[in-house]
Amino acid sequence: MNAPPAWQALHDAAVERGERHYIDPETGYVVFTELQHLDRGTCCGSACRHCPYEHENVPENRRKPQILR
Predict the structure, then answer these.
(1) What pLDDT score was predicted for residue 9?
(2) Alpha-carbon span 61 to 8, nearest angstrom
(3) Is 61 helix (H, G, I), strand (E, B) or coil?
(4) If 0-12 CB within 10 Å is exposed, 13-18 middle and 19+ buried, where does residue 15 land?
(5) Are 21 and 32 in contact (CB under 8 A)?
(6) Number of structural domains found in the chain
(7) What is the pLDDT of residue 65?
(8) Please, which residues bridge with residue 23 across strands?
(9) What is the mean pLDDT of each run of 10 residues along the chain (69 residues)?
(10) Which residues contact 15 (CB under 8 A, 6 or more apart)?
(11) Would you say residue 18 lies in a domain?
């Protein structure tokens, strides 16, 4: 069994604290948490890592094979 990616624990901890973003440890990019996306209210179409809307507005050719939250 593969270990979860390092960012998963960061996301979970940020959500637990009520935070809207965290820093990806591999890229240094700011990544929105699921909470930020829920506040937005709809999928923005950018194929975000933690999209709670199942990437509904993302074009088929850009959709990830697995929804990550």
Answers:
(1) 95
(2) 25
(3) helix
(4) middle
(5) yes
(6) 1
(7) 63
(8) 30
(9) 90 98 95 97 94 93 66
(10) 33, 34, 35
(11) yes
Amino acid identity at 57: N
Contact criterion met (CB below 8 Å) for 23 and 33: no
Three-state secondary structure call for residue 41: coil
55 in Cβ contact with 63 (< 8 Å): yes
Residue 67, domain member (yes or no): no
Domain carrying residue 30: 6-62
Q: Is residue 48 part of a domain?
A: yes
Query: Do you know the residue count of the chain?
Result: 69
In three-state secondary structure terms, 23 is: strand
Say if 68 falls within a structural domain.
Answer: no
